[in-house]
Amino acid sequence: MMNTPVLYSFRRCPYCMRAHMALKYAGIKVELREVDLTAMPEDLLEISAASADEVTVPVLLLENNSVMHESWDIVKWALQINDPDNYSGSNNEFLLDAEILVETNDFSFKTDLDHYKYADRFPEHSMQYYRELCEEFIEELEEKLLVHEFLLAQKMSLADIAVFPFVRQFSLIDKNWFDQAPYPEIQRWLTTIIDSTLFENVFQKHKNWQPGDEIVYL
Predict the structure, then answer these.
(1) Mean pLDDT of all residues in the chain?
(2) Collapsing DSSP states into helix, strand and coil, what is residue 203?
(3) What is the pLDDT of residue 65?
């Protein structure tokens, strides 16, 4: 049996960033294995073949050899183990609203985000068209941030961890446009999280893992 869980990850993947933030926040020690998405290591292929239809990251291999493939599941698992600042809320009061946001974020917004980011691959419509689709979700978040400092309350919650990496990616596709866009609350919220110790601790570059490498912990 392993001493610590193993997280296979890719630094620029927003799903992975979400998992990193939750695990780091919860203080859960994991072995971090950054991978090359074009050359997945055999260890990852082996554990994924037995439990998933396709190999994606993040993948969390637990001490009992069970495998978690979904980043949102990793977030919830981590916070169930340790939630020092009550990101889930009293009696998990934030969980349902977070689930609703994640549903929109991970499906319709992520699809629109990919089209916007790789607009040249989807010539059916313009980059601006795809951006305007993304803005439907961005406007929803802007309205929430007019009410609270963070998405669900005056403090961080699991919803902020879950959505932030994707909104950050949206902001960077055309940063000049975004910096002038009418989303001051989104801009404030992003800056707050980017400047946080939590983000600073997880947004670090590591070389791609190879068998036999020295162990790197998240």
Answers:
(1) 92
(2) coil
(3) 84
Tell me: the pLDDT tens digits for 40-72? 888 888 887 655 556 688 999 998 889 999 999
Specify burial of residue 42 (Cβ count, 10 A radius: 0-12, 13-18, 19+).
Answer: exposed
3-state SS track over 74-129: HHHHHHHHCCCCCCCCHHHCCHHHHHHHHHHHHHHHHHHHHHHHCHHHCCCCCHHH
Q: Which domains does the chain have, with CATH numbers?
A: 6-86 (3.40.30.10), 90-197 (1.20.1050.10)
CA diameter of the chain: 52
* Separation between Cα atoms, residue 77 and residue 207, nearest integer Å: 27
Contacts of the segment 205-212: beta carbons below 8 A, 24+ positions apart: 205/11, 206/11, 206/32, 206/34, 207/34, 208/34, 208/35, 208/36, 209/8, 209/32, 209/33, 209/34, 209/35, 209/41, 210/41, 211/41, 211/43
Find the helix packing angle between 14-26 and 158-173, rounded to 10°.
140
- Contact present, 130 and 112 (Cβ < 8 Å): yes
| Separation between Cα atoms, residue 135 and residue 183, nearest integer Å | 10
Q: Do the beta carbons of residue 5 and residue 189 sit within 8 Å?
A: no
pTM score over 0.85: yes
Q: Please, are residues 13 and 58 in contact by the beta-carbon 8 Å criterion?
A: yes
